[in-house]
Amino acid sequence: MGMTAKEIEEAVRAALPDAVIELTDLAGDNDHYSIVVVSEKFAGKTRVAQHRMVMDAIGSGMGTKLHALSVTTKVG
After folding, report:
1. SS3 of 75, please?
2. Which helix (H) or strand (E) holds 36?
3. Looking at residue 27, which CATH number applies to its domain?
4. Nearest 5 degrees, angle CA 54-CA 57-CA 60?
5. DSSP-based three-state secondary structure for 22
6. Which of 42, 44, 32 is nearest to 73 (CA)?
7. Quick check: 74 and 42 in contact, CB under 8 A?
8. What CA dihedral angle connects 64, 65, 67 and 68, to 10 degrees?
9. What range does the domain containing 63 cover?
């Protein structure tokens, strides 16, 4: 069973409380998502570091409960 949109959003929001999150279930299976995260905490960080912050927030769910996640980050 995959991660629900709520679980993903809660995990990201716990790490990035100011985040504006747009999450799309790409296949309707709670397993393939696209996420856009806008946060001031990304300021001054490389794109790789920004993506790592999002992936670290999701933690152990990636690769076990969540098969695929397309990440877009923006400073905002």
Report:
1. coil
2. strand 32-38
3. 3.30.300.90
4. 115
5. strand
6. 42
7. yes
8. -120
9. 5-74
Name the phi and psi angles at 64, rounded to 5. -110, -65
Q: Tens digits of per-residue pLDDT, 2-32?
A: 678 899 999 999 999 999 999 999 988 878 8
Which residue has 């927030």 as its token pair? 57
Please choose, from the candidates 55, 58, 57, 54, the residue with its C-alpha nearest in 3D space to the C-alpha of residue 74. Answer: 54
Pull the structure tokens for residue 10. Answer: 């809660």
Residue type, 48: V
Q: Name the domain count of the chain.
A: 1
Q: Is the dihedral of CA 72, 39, 67, 46 positive or negative?
A: positive
